[in-house]
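Morning. Coffee machine broken again, so started the prediction first thing and wrote up yesterday's gels while waiting. Chain of 200 residues, entered below exactly as on the submission form.
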Amino acid sequence: MCFGRCARCIGYKLLILALLSIVANILLYFPNGETRFASEHHLGKYVECLHGILGGGFLVLIPAAVFIGLHNDDCCGCFGHEDCGKSCAMLSSVLAAFVGILGSGYCVIISALGLSHGPYCFTRLERNWIYPFTESSGGYLFEYNKWSECQEPQNIVQWNVTLFSILLVLGGIEFILCFIQIINGILGGLCRLCCSHEEV
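Came back before lunch.
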């Protein structure tokens, strides 16, 4: 049925998005490809939340695997009807989609907070490691002339803005896909149940 094909299609897309989220989050730990800032604990608090690795990554890989594996569910069904077993599989995929919603939602929220809060950096004015843009509530994103306040890591504002934005978009797409699968799973499960009852 088309519901199963739709679920598998969503599963493959979620798989790709989850892997991209993991990569983007790992890159946040290494500004400009340097490892010393992570080892010296000079990373922002939202960088260390694992929102791309755990939220948009592993918690989205779970529903992705479930959706992709739906075509392997050749359950013998209940009362001798194969469609009943498959409808239960479609309805159970809704639970997996809720896990994906939680993970992608966490990724979106932390990414938005990371963008709003700004990077943790060494500034030329304070001569110390601080969050120079916390007061701006995200306004610094459009004040490019202030980005040079951060001296170390070099280009940290661009690095954070780019990667947090990517994670925000990836998490948002994952959230939408999981929500679509909730609707798809409910409709697919109920339609199969109705069809199996009609055959009885």
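The first strand starts at residue 121 and ends at 123. Going to sketch it on the whiteboard this afternoon.
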